[in-house]
Each structure stands twice: as C-alpha cells, then as structure tokens.
Amino acid sequence: MRMNRPRRSILITLGALCVLAFCLRLGAVLWLHSWLKPDAMEHRSIAQSIFDGRGFAFADFGYYGPSSFQSPPYPVLLAGLFEVFGRDTPQAFFAAMVINAVAGTATVALTYVLARALRGGEAVGLLAAAAVAVWPAQVYACTVAQAVVLITFSVTAVMGLFYISIRTGKLAPWIAFSLIGTLAALTEPAFLPAIALMGVIILFCKQLPLGTRMRNAAVLLTAALVVLGPWTLRNRRVHGAWVPVKSSFWVNTWKGNNDYASGTDRIALTPDQQAKLSGRLLSATDEEVREKRADGVHAYDILSDDQRKRLTGKSELQREVVFKEITTSWIRAHPTRYVQLCWQRLRKTIWIDWDNPKSYSLVYIISRAVLLSTASIGLLLALRRRWSLGFPALVYCSTLLLYTLTITAARFAIPFEPVMLCLSALTVVTAWQKITGKPDGATEGNWAREPNQARAWPT
C-alpha cells in the first residue's frame, strides 16, 4: 500500500532530526575528547571487577566485596565493552558514548511518539522532537559514561507506551511498557515506586475491560519478577538481606543531610568559588571545560575521624546501618535545617544545582530558564486541552518527592526534559497560531488541530 504524503513527510522530517541529533552528540564527544575522562563514577570500578572475574564487587572504606552500590545494567554494559575493546581503554569508553548517542537519537523519535500519545498534534510532536535533538543538556549527557541517557530513553518510551497500550488495549505495547519500565527501575530505583503503583492503578482503569486490566497487572508483575527478581535474589544471597536494587539509600541520604550538606553529594561552593565560575560562564576552551568537569569537594571529605573508624572495614550493608544511625540522628537534632535542605533540593532539581561547577554554563542556564518558562505555560495549555498527563505526573512527582527528601543532582532532571519539551512545543505552536491568526485545523500537517481531535498514534 502506498504511503500517504503527510505521513511520509513526517517520517522524512523525523529521520532528518535523528541524523542531526546523532551528529551533534557524537560531535560533542569528539570536541570534548570525553573518552579520555569518561566520568563513569562507581560504574568503572565495578566493570573492572567484573572483567577481572571477581564478580559485581566494589571497594570502599577499606572493604572489598560483593556490591549493590550501583544497579547492574550500566556496569555490566561497560564490562562487555571492556571485553570487546580492552579493559578500561579509551576505545571502550568511546563505544559507550556512541551507544549514548544512539540512545539519545532514538529518544528524539520517541519524543514525537510521546507528544502524540499525550494528545498533541503533529506540529507539537515534530517541534518537541527537534528540541530534544538540539537541547544542550540532552547533547551533553552523551559525553559521560553514565546511565542517564539510557534512563531518559526508557522514561520517554514508557510514558508513550503506557497511553498507546491503554487506548489500543493491545498486549504488545503493554509488554514493552512493562519490560522497559522495570528495566528503568532497575537502572534508577527512583522510578520503582511509580512503576509499582501502576500495577495497582491499572486494575482501576475503566477504559479497559476487567480481563484486560487483570492481564496487564499480571504482565507487569511477571516483568518485575523477570527483570528485578534475579538481582534481588542475588543481593539476598551475597548480603544476607533483602535489597531490591541498591544498597546505597542511607549513604546517599547522609550525603544530602549533614552539617556541611548542600542537598547534593557536593559541599556548597564558597562565594569566591561561585564568583570565579560565574566569571567564566562564556568560557569554552578545553582547559576551562576540564576545570568545570572537576568533581570538586564531596561529602566523604567531611567525615569525622570517629565516623571513618566506624565505617572502615565494614561491608556495604554494615555501612548502611552506620549511615542510617548518623543520618536519622542528625535529622532529629536539626529538623529545621533538614526542611531547609529539602526546599533547597526541590529548587535544585527543578532549576539548577548552583553548587555543581558544571552548572556554570551560560548555555545551560539560558536553556534551563527557557525550558521551565515555556513548559509552565504549556502545562496550563495542556490541562485546558485535556492532554493525558496523569502518568507523566505520577512518574515526575514520585521521583521529585524522593529526590527532595533524600538527595538530588543536576543529572536527575535530564530524563524529564523530553516530556517538558512536549509542553514547551505546545506553547510555541499555540503562540504561532495566535500570531498568524490561523484557526484550528487550517494548517496542513496538524499544525493547529485540536488535541482532542488528534490521533494518539499516527496510522
């Protein structure tokens, strides 16, 4: 059957945007020489241990042993690349960043699908996809050997698949939703509450027959057992306790809540440091970029001698007990300061982390301001036009609450940028309609079609 002209035009446009997205991401990796300083956090050490045949293990505080400090997907991926390209080689990290670029490119296409699934028109979908293709934070995220790009891909896919599966009632999109959603939760446990809640909420989704709801709940439970079950059982065997994903909850909560805490795992920058970084907002030399990429001072640096003695030589779960005691005692003794840190974390997650040297980029600050302002207007427009926002709101609010109460970081906001850019695109398209004076439905390609008339899935 011959493809109609509008659909062919959309596919060509999306293809061009995907090519642009890949070139920008790979270009950023090449320009920054990111494979030489991959910024892989604990993933690197764990991948080395896997490659060396010592299993999923990590060394910290003088103890080396089985670890669940990080979740398995990304360290296992790195270990596989070490097998192909050599242990800890620049080639292996370059390959990891190429994978990031591919995943980031796929997110561009998924953003179009998401915008349409939310009940946006074709123009909104294409504009949102174009924004993700060139958005600075999305491009820059590909230059580090971390899981954030894969998480962004997964979250964007899950949001779109949820609505497609609900509206069609078909099994295939729900299976994809369940598998990708539980894999996202395995990679980033902050998404676990939202995915778990969907197993309950789907039972009350009256759009679907009771049999379909029961089937979907069973599929999601099966996916959780298949994806999360083996790792949880492994943790039970090596730790002697039930650890669903990570054994780093209390250490991370302590990093965000102590006498010197800034709400993240970094100590607050001094006014002199902030002034120095502010004076280099427009800097783009290799030397300045490397300086901004420096880790800075982290929470471990302010542990007291007594605290270090209590932690040294202990296993991960034993250290979790110590950090839980330290953290809960501090919160009980400083309730007002804890509330202040929660408010600070909320602002840093929504806005920017001003204690992270990487945030001192004029491009990042301006793009973040544009995103927040246009997405806020777009949210009001979307509510007025009855967009489907329930599931994205559940995912965003549940993770935002967790980050607010425990610890946050600049990278935590990146997975939500595609859905926010869908709202921003709605703002721009609506403004264009007002400026040109074209009534709804007057422009070819769904530029002005009412969302409640738009198809949720392009056919």
Description:
- This protein has 459 residues and is an all-alpha fold.
- It has 20 helices and two strands.
- It has helices at 5-32, 41-51, 73-85, 90-117, 122-134, 136-140, 148-168, 171-187, 192-201, 210-227, 229-239, 249-256, 271-278, 286-292, 305-311, 316-333, 335-350, 362-384, 390-405, 417-436; strands at 57-60, 63-66.
- It is globular.
- The model is unreliable at 284-295 and 440-459 (pLDDT under 50).
| Run of helices and strands | HHEEHHHHHHHHHHHHHHHHHH
What separation lies between the terminal Cα atoms?
13 Å
Largest sheet: 2 strands, antiparallel
What is the mean pLDDT? 88
Q: Tell me what portion of residues adopts beta-strand conformation.
A: under 5%
Q: By helix and strand content, what is the structural category?
A: mainly alpha
Shape: globular
Number of strands: 2
Going across the biggest sheet, name each strand in turn: 1-2
The residue fraction in helices comes out at: 55-70%
